[in-house]
Design brief:
The chain is of the alpha+beta class and about 325 residues long. The chain is about 30% helix and about 25% strand. It contains 11 helices and 19 strands. It has helices at about 10, 25-30, 40-50, 55-70, 75-80, 90-110, 115-130, 175, 200-205, 220-225, 235, and strands spanning about 70, 115, 135-140, 160-165, 170, 180, 190, 195-200, 210, 230, 240-245, 250, 255-265, 270-275, 280, 285-290, 290-295, 305-310, 315-320. Strands 10, 12, 14, 15, 18 and 19 form a 6-stranded mixed beta sheet that branches. Strands 8-5-4-3-9 form a 5-stranded antiparallel beta sheet. It has a 4-stranded antiparallel beta sheet with strand order 11-13-17-16, with no helix packed on it. Helix 6 packs across helix 7 (about 115-130). It is globular, with a radius of gyration of 21 Å. It starts with 8 loop residues before the first helix and ends with a strand. The model is unreliable at about 1-20 (pLDDT under 50).
Length: about 325
């Protein structure tokens, strides 16, 4: 089901890049003490309304509870059983049917405590409605697999949200906040990620591209998105930045050494692996001001994908070509 997202679009184009700097530890700790189940979304919303007064605190509470207590449903994702299609006679009919199906998704997700991105998005949207925060659903393409490096965003395989805090629209992905699929086991691993909460558009763009380009909130193109390497959740939630290489495809014919530079890297164990070798190698880096620099050598056997790790967590993958 694709949704008409023209509602609120013009307002979204006025979004400010001003960040909401806040320590959410108190909110997260309080919400983690909530019951693990509620009978319906309204019960969760009532609890949030009773405990918090500001829009940002309420939205964070909804984000934290859903991410901690709803598990990703891999079986539903693989079967595609969650998709629906419907017709409508006009704008009012469309909005009424969207609201009806959104509430059904939300109630089912609360009952089963699992879902795919559409379920997470629907539940979050319904709770936002009930706590008095404007919210929209955004459909687009995610960048979540190395094979997508260099590919234009055409899949429309993901759904996320935007919320209005004060007079600013901010981006949220509560699905990816809940964890990720382990590439080795193929199983979902719960791992709360606060990096997808009110994320700056430049960062959100690293792995989200909306069908409606007006919802990018940043001056980027689909070609820019295709050219990116694959950035993982642990990178999104940290404040350091890979300043080089900027592009996801690296040609072995043009270089025998890949120079890396990370800005504001706080430290940690750096390592890398080429997929065709399967051997993880440690990285020796040097510090130059606020930059951390290192080189990764390549040879005729360097093929497939190159992944860089920080403290044994994948942060970025590049595609190696001849």
């Amino acid at each position: 089901m694709k949704k008409n997202l023209q509602t609120f679009v013009l307002l979204l184009l006025l979004v400010s890049s001003t960040a909401f700097s806040q320590d959410y530890t108190r909110i997260d700790n309080l919400v983690q003490a909530y019951p693990k189940s509620f009978s319906n979304p309204q019960k969760l919303s009532d609890k949030i309304n009773a405990d918090f007064s500001t829009e940002i605190d309420k939205v964070r509470a909804a984000y934290t509870w859903i991410a901690h207590n709803i598990k990703y449903d891999l079986n539903a994702y693989k079967s595609g059983s969650n998709m629906i299609a419907y017709s409508y006679s006009g704008e009012a009919d469309r909005l009424a049917k969207e609201q009806k199906y959104r509430l059904e998704y939300a109630e089912k997700t609360m009952r089963t405590k699992k879902g795919v991105c559409q379920d997470y998005s629907a539940l979050f949207h319904v709770v936002c409605d009930q706590i008095g925060v404007k919210c929209i659903d955004i459909i687009g393409t995610s960048k979540s697999h190395p094979a997508q490096i260099g590919k234009l965003p055409k899949a429309s395989d993901h759904e996320w949200n935007a919320v209005k805090i004060g007079d600013k629209w901010k981006l949220i992905d509560v699905t990816w906040a809940s964890g990720s699929v382990d590439t080795q086991t193929g199983k979902f691993q719960s791992d709360f990620n606060g990096g997808y909460f009110l994320t700056e558009p430049e960062v959100f763009f690293l792995n989200h591209f909306p069908d409606d380009k007006r919802l990018l909130m940043v001056d980027k193109t689909d070609q820019d998105f295709a050219a990116l390497p694959l950035y993982y959740g642990p990178y999104i939630k940290n404040d350091y930045e890979f300043a080089s290489p900027l592009y996801g495809i690296i040609s072995i014919a043009k270089t025998s050494v890949i120079p890396f530079q990370i800005i504001d890297f706080p430290g940690g164990k750096l390592s890398y692996v080429f997929t065709n070798e399967g051997r993880i190698r440690d990285i020796q880096s040097v510090k130059k001001g606020n930059a951390t620099e290192f080189d990764i050598p390549m040879n005729a056997r360097s093929r497939g994908y190159l992944t860089v790790y920080v403290d044994n967590q994948a942060v970025v993958t590049y595609k190696i070509e001849k």
